[in-house]
Specification:
Layout (H helix, E strand, L loop, with lengths): L2 E7 L7 H13 L5 E7 L11 H4 L3 E2 L5 E2 L1 H10 L8 E3 H14 L9 H20 L3 E6 L9 H14 L4 E8 L12 H12 L6 E6 L5 H11 L6 E5 L7 H7 L2 H8 L10 H11 L3 E9 L9 H14 L1 E9 L13 E4 L8 H13 L4 E4 L1 H13 L6 E3 L7 E6 L14 E9 L4 H6 L3 E8 L1 E3 L1 H9 L3 E5 L6 E5 L6 E4 L14 H17 L1
Parallel strand pairs: 1-6, 1-7, 2-5, 2-6, 7-8, 8-9, 10-11, 10-12, 12-13, 13-21, 14-15
Antiparallel strand pairs: 3-4, 15-18, 16-17, 16-19, 19-20, 20-21
Helix pairs in contact: 1-3, 1-9, 4-5, 5-6, 11-12, 12-17, 13-14
The structure holds glutamine.
Length: 531
C-alpha cells in the first residue's frame, strides 16, 4: 500500500511550498521509490482554467488537457513524469461530484454533510491516484494556509487518513516562515509556533517543519522550534533563500531530510542518484556566457504567470552553459527602444485584446531588425497578424478574438463556434504535429512527427494560408490532417519561429524543448557578436 507525505503551509502564502513539496518528491524518487504528487486547491473553481494568472499564477496544461495549478508544472519538472488532471483536486471538483451523487440518489436517505461525505470524497480522490499510479509514495500538497476556512475539509480528510493508516503510512510536513525582523538579524519563531498550534487544534501534529528564512536557521532557533512544536531537532529543516529553485532538493538532502522521511515511513533506501540533477544545478551556477531575453507580456508584475517560460529558458540555458536574464516588458508600454540591448524576444500566451498591439509592435521590431524571436500560441497568432498587415499589406488584418475585422487571419476554430460553456472547452492537451521537410523546425526537432500541448480557441484562418505562404511565411508544422497551422517560421532571419502549441509545458531540467534550445542558441550568438 502507498505511503503518504502531506505538506501543509503556515503563516502566509508564497513561501515556495510547491518547491519544497517537489523537492521532497524528487528526493524520495532519487532513492529508487515510485513517487507521485497531488496538489489540493481549496477554491471553488473546478480547475484553474477559468482563472486569470494574476489570481494564482500560470495555468499549467497537462498531456490529458487538464488545466491545472502551476505547482503541477514543478512536480512534472522535478519528477520528470507526466501527470493527469486527477492530480489536481479542487473544492469545486469535490463538491460537484458529491452533489451529482446526491442527485443520482447514491446517498438516499442520508443527510449529506461535509463530514463524512465531502471528506470521504477527498480521501477517495487521493486513494484513486495512489491506486492508478501504483506509487509507493504519494506526496499531497494542501494549498492555502492552515487556518483558512477553505482548507478545513481537506485538513480534516488528511487527519482521518492518518488515523486510519497510522504513523508508518502518513507523515506530515509543515512549511512556515521564520522572519528576521530586527537590524541585528534575529530570527523569530513565534509565527511558526502559532501556525503549528493552529494545525494541532485541527488534530494534526507535524512530523517535520520546514522553516523558510532569508539566512539558514540558526542552531538555537531550530532547537527552539523543536521544543515548542514538539518535533526532534533534526526534523526542523532550514530553507533559506536559494539561488535557484533546483538547489532546494540538494540543500534538503544535505540536512538529512530524505533519510528522516525514509525512517519515518519505514521505507528502505535502494539507491542514491542525484548525479544528473547535481550536474544540472552546477551548469546553472557556473554559466560561461550570458544573454538577455525580453518577454513581452501583460501579467509581468506577477512573474509566476509565466513560470514555465522561465523554467524552459533555464533548462535550455543550462544545456548551453548560458545564464539568461529575462527583461520583463509590459506589452501596453512597449516601445522599440526597449529592445535596444536584448538578444531575443518572446511573445507568450495571452487572451483578450489588451496588450495585443504592443505585442504586434514587438514582433514587427524583432522581424525587421533580425532579433531572434519565439512566439507562443497568442504570440504565434499575432506573428501571423503582423505579417499579414505589414508584408501582405492587409492593414486591417486581425484576430476575431478582438472583434469583427475585414481580414480575420486568425479566427475561431469551427468546433468552437457553437460552444456556450467556457470551462475546459478550449482545444486542450497533447496533439500530434507533423513537421514539414526542409524547414528549421525539422532541424530542431529532428523528427517529422512530434507531440506538444495546446490551449487555444483560435487558429490560422485556412483562407489566408495560401497568400501568407506565397508572401514568404512558412508553416513548418501542421496537424496530421493538414488543416491546422502549428508552427511558423521565416527564412532570411536568424531565428523567427512561433508555435500554436506550448512547448514550455514539456520542457524538463535535462531535456530542454527544441524551440527554446534553438532560440537561446541564436540569442547567445547575437550577444557574442555584439561584444
Ligand atoms: N487567446 C488565444 C486563443 O484562445 C491564444 C491562447 C493562448 O495563448 N494560450 O486561441
Amino acid at each position: 500500500m502507498a505511503k503518504f507525505v502531506f505538506v501543509t503551509g503556515g503563516v502566509l502564502s508564497g513561501l515556495g511550498k510547491g518547491i519544497s513539496a517537489s523537492s521532497i518528491a524528487l528526493l524520495l524518487q532519487s532513492r529508487g521509490l515510485a513517487v507521485t504528487a497531488i496538489k489540493i486547491d481549496p477554491y471553488l473553481n473546478c480547475d484553474a482554467g477559468t482563472m486569470n494568472p494574476y489570481q494564482h499564477g500560470e495555468v499549467f496544461v497537462l498531456e490529458d488537457g487538464g488545466e491545472v495549478d502551476m505547482d503541477l508544472g514543478s512536480y512534472e519538472r522535478f519528477l520528470n513524469t507526466d501527470l493527469t488532471k486527477d492530480h489536481n483536486i479542487t473544492t469545486g471538483k469535490i463538491y460537484k461530484s458529491v452533489i451529482e451523487k446526491e442527485r443520482r440518489g447514491d446517498y438516499l436517505g442520508a443527510t449529506v454533510q461535509i463530514i463524512p461525505h465531502i471528506t470521504d470524497e477527498i480521501k477517495s480522490c487521493i486513494r484513486r491516484v495512489a491506486e492508478r499510479t501504483r506509487a509507493e509514495v504519494v506526496l499531497v500538497e494542501v494549498g492555502g494556509t492552515v487556518g483558512d476556512i477553505e482548507s478545513m475539509p481537506f485538513l480534516e480528510a488528511i487527519r482521518q487518513m492518518h488515523q486510519e493508516l497510522g504513523d508508518a503510512h502518513c507523515t506530515f510536513v509543515h512549511t512556515t516562515l521564520v522572519p528576521t525582523v530586527s537590524a541585528v538579524g534575529e530570527q523569530k519563531t513565534k509565527p511558526t509556533q502559532h501556525s503549528v498550534k493552529e494545525l494541532r487544534a485541527i488534530g494534526i501534529q507535524p512530523d517535520i517543519i520546514i522553516g523558510r528564512s532569508d539566512q539558514p536557521l540558526k542552531e538555537s532557533i531550530r532547537k527552539k522550534i523543536a521544543l515548542f512544536c514538539d518535533v526532534p531537532v533534526e526534523a526542523v529543516i532550514s530553507a533559506p533563500h536559494a539561488p535557484s529553485i533546483y538547489r532546494v532538493p540538494l540543500d534538503f538532502e544535505e540536512q538529512g531530510l530524505t533519510d528522516l522521511l525514509l525512517r519515518r515511513l519505514s521505507l528502505t533506501s535502494q539507491k542514491r542518484d542525484l548525479l544528473e540533477w547535481r550536474a544540472f544545478t552546477e551548469a546553472i551556477a557556473h554559466p560561461r556566457a550570458k544573454t538577455r531575453i525580453a518577454l513581452v507580456g501583460k501579467y509581468t508584475d506577477l512573474q509566476d504567470s509565466y513560470v514555465s517560460y522561465t523554467e524552459a529558458l533555464t533548462h535550455a540555458g543550462a544545456a548551453l552553459g548560458v545564464s539568461i536574464e529575462i527583461i520583463w516588458l509590459e506589452a501596453d508600454q512597449f516601445s522599440e527602444q526597449l529592445l535596444e540591448s536584448v538578444d531575443g524576444v518572446i511573445v507568450p500566451v495571452g487572451f483578450g485584446h489588451r496588450g495585443a498591439e504592443g505585442k504586434i509592435r514587438a514582433i514587427h521590431c524583432a522581424r525587421t531588425r533580425q532579433i531572434p524571436f519565439l512566439g507562443i500560441c497568442y504570440g504565434f497568432q499575432l506573428a501571423v497578424v503582423e505579417f499579414a498587415r505589414n508584408v501582405l499589406g492587409l492593414k486591417e488584418a486581425n484576430s476575431t478574438e478582438f472583434g469583427p475585422t475585414p481580414h480575420p487571419v486568425i479566427d475561431l476554430m469551427p468546433e468552437q463556434q457553437t460552444l456556450s460553456e467556457k470551462g475546459a472547452t478550449m482545444r486542450l492537451g497533447a496533439y500530434p504535429v507533423m513537421i514539414v521537410r526542409g524547414t528549421r523546425a525539422l532541424k530542431l526537432y529532428k523528427t517529422t512527427e512530434i507531440s506538444e500541448r495546446h490551449r487555444h480557441r483560435y487558429e490560422v484562418n485556412p483562407k489566408y494560408i495560401g497568400p501568407l505562404e506565397a508572401a514568404g511565411l512558412k508553416f513548418s508544422g501542421k496537424s496530421p490532417d493538414g488543416r491546422r497551422m502549428e508552427i511558423l517560421e521565416l527564412a532570411d532571419h536568424p531565428y523567427f519561429m512561433a508555435s500554436q502549441f506550448h512547448p514550455e509545458f514539456k520542457s524538463r531540467p535535462t531535456q530542454p524543448r527544441p524551440l527554446f534550445l534553438g532560440f537561446v542558441e541564436k540569442c547567445l550568438e547575437r550577444s557574442s557578436s555584439a561584444r
